[in-house]
Write a structure and sequence with these properties.
With 115 residues, the protein is mainly beta. The chain has no helices and 11 strands.
């Protein structure tokens, strides 16, 4: 079984920064992609950023230039550095990974940005 465990959420002021981490553990043979999604109350879950095993990144337009995704393949860990936070970034943030050709999700971590 594969588990994804997020950490690093919390409360930040507008303009501030937070860093999320997500570690994959279990019987891992391959990870082709890891990323972050978010869901605010009443909204659908949306992509924030993804990174492939060969470091190709993809960002939502709303976070380009403010958020940076990175990965430590040796630790099976993906990070999301969030700078220039805005109140509209408030949401539950979920880590997702394609591990052993299956998609897994973490439990989520709350990010709240106050104005």
């Amino acid at each position: 079984q594969v588990q994804l465990v997020e950490s690093g959420g919390g409360l930040a002021q507008a303009g501030g920064s937070l860093r999320l981490s997500c570690a994959a553990s279990g019987r891992i043979f391959s990870i082709s992609e890891m990323g972050w999604y978010r869901q605010a109350p009443g909204n659908q879950r949306e992509l924030v950023a993804t990174i492939t095993s060969n470091y190709k990144t993809n960002y939502a337009d709303s976070v380009k230039g403010r958020f940076t995704i990175s990965v430590d393949n040796a630790k099976n860990t993906v990070y999301l550095q969030m700078d220039g936070l805005k109140p509209e970034d408030t949401a539950g943030y979920y880590c997702s990974g394609v591990v052993n050709s299956f998609r897994y999700w973490g439990q989520g971590t709350q990010v709240t940005v106050s104005s």
